[in-house]
From TrEMBL, chain A:
<dbReference type="GO" id="GO:0003924">
    <property type="term" value="F:GTPase activity"/>
</dbReference>
<keyword id="KW-0472">Membrane</keyword>
<keyword id="KW-0967">Endosome</keyword>
<dbReference type="GO" id="GO:0005769">
    <property type="term" value="C:early endosome"/>
</dbReference>
<dbReference type="GO" id="GO:0005525">
    <property type="term" value="F:GTP binding"/>
</dbReference>
<dbReference type="InterPro" id="IPR027417">
    <property type="entry name" value="P-loop_NTPase"/>
</dbReference>
<keyword id="KW-0342">GTP-binding</keyword>
<dbReference type="Pfam" id="PF00071">
    <property type="entry name" value="Ras"/>
</dbReference>
<keyword id="KW-0449">Lipoprotein</keyword>
TrEMBL record, chain B:
<feature type="domain" description="VPS9">
    <location>
        <begin position="810"/>
        <end position="956"/>
    </location>
</feature>
<dbReference type="GO" id="GO:0016197">
    <property type="term" value="P:endosomal transport"/>
</dbReference>
<dbReference type="InterPro" id="IPR003409">
    <property type="entry name" value="MORN"/>
</dbReference>
<protein>
    <submittedName>
        <fullName>ALS2 C-terminal like</fullName>
    </submittedName>
</protein>
<keyword id="KW-0677">Repeat</keyword>
<dbReference type="InterPro" id="IPR003123">
    <property type="entry name" value="VPS9"/>
</dbReference>
<dbReference type="InterPro" id="IPR057248">
    <property type="entry name" value="Alsin-like_PH"/>
</dbReference>
<dbReference type="Pfam" id="PF02493">
    <property type="entry name" value="MORN"/>
</dbReference>
<dbReference type="Pfam" id="PF02204">
    <property type="entry name" value="VPS9"/>
</dbReference>
């Protein structure tokens, strides 16, 4: 089975639980080959998808405002970006919008954008209505899901959704290359409507 | 026989001997006074006849020597006999000292026969005849009256040798009596030996006398003119075609005459005299099966002579005589006795085919009047020798089959001084590696082909010359051709690119000392047509050029402030620019960044750039790698001080270190003997790596030599004052090219180590091989120059980074962590032990020490992998410190890691962090993209980037106090 390496970068404010989601995703399944990591900043996980294996190379970014300008160095060459906000903090949703705008302007072409509303377990103090977030996601043709890293809700699903959006390989590429790394998508599906 | 009898017997021998010696001495003294001295008195100087008188003087000398010796020995023996002390053969000097006697007599008779040959007796006889007529008695008293001859010369001849031969007969008689007398003495080796010696001496004397008479008669018969040419005292006739017919023209015997002498073969035809020195004659062996053949082949350095004989037996005889004469001539010693059976009854050997001798060529051709001194084989210079031409050219070295072949030094006289070649030769032509010191004070070191410079070579001025030029590159038919680098010291210009017919031609880059550099197509030495020009202040011109760097035609100019002019240009760069076009003043920083970091040589064919460096090495490998051929293929490698320089990990900072220690350690080299065999034995990658490290770092190992050449060509382009940031990418590609080439070469010998990893998991390893295997080993050689280029490339951002560091380091540990938004619970304050009057806010350089030390180590190695490992350890150390503070395991997300990294980096104060990171990234393989290494490097790069930010650079930490 062919292995495809997919670079995914995590964006979002400090404290929204970017790394919690990823740690949950990576830890939940017992992995025989424990891949080397850099703290919680760089993690990998391989999941099957169709007749392929997707190896997610997950890049964390620093959420602090002052490091914002460094983000392009991190999301450059990503196949997908997961932008995380905290449903209990409206500010974090505003930051999210800024990220979406930046990615559209400076991010890789055809990057898959996934929006994750974290801390779904604290919905009683919710500040960002799910509907609003969902509509926003739809308007930019992004994946949307609300998660709870603490209760392990929808974490798996988030990445499955990303996986499903990865276009399959061209047959000749499969033949010529047993192993394959993929950092940038070949232009295929035209997802951006606006 | 009793002892007494024995003793008596020896005493008797002694008495006998003393008696004959006394009579002999009396005779000698008498002859001396009455004859010899008288003859010598006639030694009036007469120019024409001086030869005879010289010989007479020598004869007299030998006469005295013989006389003195006999006198001394006779006296000694007389004393011994008187004391009754003659007890064995050891006391009898003619037994014990037979060889000395033999020597004295041989010498005497040599002189004597020399005198005969030059007609000395005839001459002196005539000269003194009047005297002898008056004093007949003086002659006659020495000769038995009945046998007395009428001719004075004949009488003198007899007086001066007959009695000496008689004396030898006396010695023989005494010795023979001894052996016959008593059986006990028979078998005494000394006695037998000396008896044999005297017999031989007797026959030797009669032989040389015969020979001399024959020779003297020959000279008489030839007439005055020929005699004057041919006669020398030492020359003796050995064989004459009159005796045993032989001729150079078949069927016309008697037409020419052939004389074999002891030093030469002489061919007479009419008035034509040809003279062949025996030392350079080779007689073609006779195939005994075709015994009816009548011809004989003689090889001389310039001719092959076919001699014809009437009868086969004549041929065999001539063959034998020729060989014997040649052998004796080469040995510079006549056989004793002449024409004998040889030593100990063995058949005398034929002369050696290989010999050492001198010859002057006469025939027209390249060797006319050249003198060769050295080894020969079968008529050709072969082995070691020296060839001197008439026009002062000379060659000293190896020959094969008459041609320069092997290694040799060749001097060609010039108007002033010499061109001195130290080259390898093949069949008379300079071939493969060599060097030439020209009379113009330039030196070429490199390859030759068919006498011409061809392949890779370096031409440079001698040290101390005012106008230094240096060309490192390829040659074809004695001209610069192909890829090459030329540096001119006075102007400081460096051209990197293609050459044709000694001219810059094709793709090329010119780097000047002022910092101006341009790239484009060269034609006839000049940049013509489209090109790119960069000035030191990072102005960029892209467009048309005409000769002499005139910007003329369509082009685009980008100024450092981002302003561009696009249009038609005229006038020279730097001399006021005229342009018709559109000026864009929209301050485009991206444009100016691009100009600053523009990389030249992007479309150069980096692969295959240096075929001349690798081809000889590959040929060497194919030639079975004999040590003898190593130099011919790989060169002498008179290593420059530069290549020995210790490679300091701090780039230029380390360059000043003394190289003594380094060169010593590197000289403990692995010998190259059978290095391929050794290479093939490498079983695993680790072994191979160790092997490569050892051999590449050795100055004497072929691989080490290859690497030296690689370093040399690399430095030619990228080292020194001509180092230019616009060449960074080209340099970096070239290093990889060198690594790949070495790998290609090795791969052929240990293919099993390269094909193993066919499983998908390891597949990336195959591609990585040259990076992981060869590159780290060779990188230290290139590192100083390469890292210099990185530093130049990063000069501007590094300056900003340094400013940032400077300001951040004004802050105390706690202040800095606060500024960087490090979460308070991660501050490692628990680790600190403060004295009572200290406060945390004053602590400086105390936190995260282990991580700081780790990151500092990246500057201590040239190996990108090691540098990378240090970065990984740095992160590990940060995490370990944090875990200790929190007393639990905590995996740092980037929100926490990045500020801590910036903290650690700012405290580590690494000089050239940007270059280091860029270097690591370039030297790692592209597969790393997106992976952990990529992430780690990105993390450090983002820190580097962050520290260049204006707010940090300016020290504007206003929002907190």
């Amino acid at each position: 089975m062919a292995i495809r390496e997919l670079k995914v970068c995590l964006l979002g404010d400090t404290g929204v639980g970017k790394s919690s989601i990823v740690c949950r995703f990576v830890q939940d399944h017992f992995d025989h080959n424990i891949s080397p990591t850099i703290g919680a900043s760089f993690l990998t996980k391989t999941v099957p998808c169709g007749n392929e294996l997707h190896k997610f190379l997950i890049w964390d970014t620093a959420g602090q405002e002052r490091f914002h300008s460094l983000a392009p160095m991190y999301y450059r060459g990503s196949a997908a970006a997961v932008i995380v906000y905290d449903i209990t903090k409206l500010d974090s949703f505003q930051t999210l919008k800024k990220w979406v705008k930046e990615l559209k302007e400076h991010g890789p072409e055809d990057i898959i954008v996934a929006i994750a509303g974290n801390k779904n377990d604290l919905s009683d103090i919710r500040e960002v209505p799910m509907k609003e977030a969902k509509e926003f996601a739809e308007s930019i043709a992004a994946i949307f899901i609300e998660t709870s890293a603490r209760n392990a809700v929808n974490v798996e699903e988030l990445f499955q959704k990303i996986s499903r959006q990865i276009p399959p390989l061209d047959p000749q590429d499969v033949e010529s290359n047993e192993s394959f790394k993929l950092t940038r998508q070949p232009a295929t599906v035209h997802r951006r409507c606006c | 026989m009793s002892l007494v009898q024995m003793k008596d017997k020896w005493i008797k021998v002694g008495q006998d001997l003393v008696k004959t010696d006394k009579a002999f001495l009396e005779y000698l003294s008498d002859v001396n006074v009455t004859v010899l001295q008288h003859l010598l008195n006639h030694n009036a100087v007469e120019g024409k006849r001086q030869m005879q008188m010289t010989q007479l003087l020598q004869l007299s000398e030998k006469f005295q020597a013989l006389w003195d010796y006999t006198e001394v020995k006779c006296k000694q023996l007389q004393t011994l006999t008187g004391q009754g002390n003659v007890q064995s053969s050891r006391d009898v000097y003619i037994i014990e000292q037979m060889e000395s006697i033999q020597q004295l007599y041989t010498e005497y008779f040599s002189s004597f026969t020399n005198f005969v040959v030059v007609g000395g007796f005839d001459y002196i006889g005539k000269k003194t005849s009047t005297y002898w007529k008056e004093n007949k008695v003086n002659l006659w008293r020495f000769i038995n009256a009945q046998k007395c001859e009428s001719s004075v010369s004949l009488n003198l001849y007899r007086i001066l040798h007959e009695r000496l031969r008689e004396q030898i007969s006396h010695y023989t008689r005494i010795l023979t009596l001894l052996t016959e007398d008593d059986r006990q003495i028979v078998g005494d080796e000394g006695l037998d030996g000396s008896l044999r010696g005297f017999m031989d001496l007797k026959s030797y004397i009669s032989q040389v006398l015969d020979e001399a008479t024959l020779t003297k008669d020959l000279w008489k018969s030839l007439g005055q003119k020929l005699t004057d040419i041919l006669c020398t005292p030492e020359r003796r006739l050995q064989e004459d075609s009159k005796n045993a017919p032989i001729s150079l023209s078949a069927g016309r015997f008697g037409h020419d005459r052939i004389l074999l002498c002891n030093d030469a073969l002489i061919h007479l035809q009419g008035s034509d005299v040809r003279y062949y020195d025996l030392s350079t004659l080779w007689i073609e062996p006779i195939d005994m099966d075709i015994s009816e053949s009548k011809s004989l082949k003689v090889i001389t350095p310039e001719d092959q002579l076919i001699f014809h004989t009437l009868e086969p037996h004549n041929r065999v005889m001539w063959y034998w005589k020729l060989n014997q004469a040649v052998r004796q001539c080469l040995a510079k010693k006549r056989d004793f006795p002449l024409w004998g059976k040889g030593n100990k009854g063995q058949r005398p050997a034929n002369p050696p085919n290989c010999r050492f001798t001198t010859y002057t060529f006469k025939n027209e051709g390249r060797l006319k009047n050249a003198i060769y001194e050295g080894d020969w084989k079968q008529g050709k210079p072969h082995g070691k020798g020296t060839l001197k031409w008439e026009d002062e050219r000379n060659y000293t070295g190896d020959f094969i089959n008459g041609l320069e072949h092997g290694f040799g030094v060749y001097l060609v006289s010039q108007a002033e001084g010499y061109n001195c070649y130290k080259c390898h030769w093949i069949e008379g032509k300079k071939q493969r590696y060599g060097m030439c010191e020209y009379s113009t004070n330039t030196i070429y070191r490199g390859y030759f082909k068919g006498d011409l410079r061809h392949g890779f070579g370096i031409l440079e001025s001698n040290r101390g010359e005012s106008s230094l030029i240096r060309y490192v590159g390829h040659w074809e038919n004695d001209r610069k051709h192909g890829y090459g680098i030329m540096e001119t010291a006075d102007s400081g210009d460096r051209y990197i690119g293609m050459w044709k017919d000694d001219q810059r031609d094709g793709r090329g880059i010119m780097v000047t000392q002022s910092g101006l550099c341009y790239e484009g197509n060269f034609q006839g030495g000049k940049l013509i047509g489209k090109g790119v020009l960069l000035s030191e202040d990072n102005s960029l011109y892209e467009g048309e050029f005409t000769e002499d760097l005139q910007l003329r035609g369509k082009g685009k100019m980008t100024f450092p402030d981002g302003i561009t002019i696009e249009g038609t240009f005229s006038s020279t760069f730097g001399n006021g620019l005229q342009a018709n076009g559109v000026m864009n003043t929209s301050n485009n920083t991206e444009m100016s960044y691009a100009a600053t970091h523009l990389q030249l040589g992007q479309d150069f064919l980096v692969l295959g750039q240096w075929p001349g460096v690798f081809t000889p090495f590959i040929e060497y490998l194919r030639s079975d790698c004999t040590e003898k051929m190593e130099e011919a293929f790989l060169g002498f490698h008179t290593e420059s001080s530069r290549s020995l320089r210790k490679v300091g990990s701090e780039g230029l900072g380390g360059d000043s270190q003394s190289d003594e220690h380094h060169s010593c350690s590197r000289r403990e080299a692995v010998t190259n003997a059978e290095f391929l065999k050794e290479l093939r034995l490498q079983q695993s990658k680790d072994q191979l790596q160790q092997y490569l490290e050892k051999s590449l770092q050795s100055l004497r190992h072929p691989l080490g030599k290859l690497l030296q050449t690689q370093t040399l060509v690399f430095q030619a382009a990228y080292s020194g004052p001509g180092a230019n940031k616009h060449l960074l990418e080209m340099a970096q590609k070239e290093v990889k090219y060198h690594a790949e080439k070495i790998q290609e070469i090795i791969m052929d010998y240990v293919p099993q180590l390269f094909n193993k990893s066919s499983e998908p998991v390891e597949s990336s390893e195959t591609e990585m091989d040259f990076c992981s295997l060869v590159l780290p080993v060779i990188l230290p050689e290139f590192y100083p120059d390469l890292s210099m280029l990185y530093m130049l490339y990063h000069a501007e951002d590094n300056a900003c980074y340094r400013q940032g560091i400077l300001h951040l380091n004004l802050l105390s540990d706690t202040k800095l962590m606060e500024f960087l938004d490090v979460q308070r619970h991660l501050w490692p304050l628990k680790d600190l032990h403060l004295t009572s009057n200290q406060r945390y806010s004053l602590v400086h350089d105390q936190c995260f020490l282990s991580a700081i030390e780790c990151v500092q180590k990246i500057s201590t190695t040239a190996d990108p992998q090691e540098k990378l490992d240090n970065l990984f350890h740095t992160v590990d150390e940060i995490e370990r410190t944090v875990n200790r503070i929190l007393c639990r395991e905590y995996k740092l997300p980037l929100d926490d890691l990045l500020p801590l990294l910036i903290y650690v980096i700012s405290r580590a104060r690494i000089q050239h962090l940007g270059s280091e990171l860029h270097f690591i990234r370039d030297m790692m393989t592209p597969q790393m993209q997106g992976g952990m290494v990529d992430f780690l490097l990105t993390a450090f790069e983002s820190c580097y980037e962050h520290m260049q930010k204006e707010e940090i650079r300016q020290g504007r930490f206003t929002n907190f106090t």
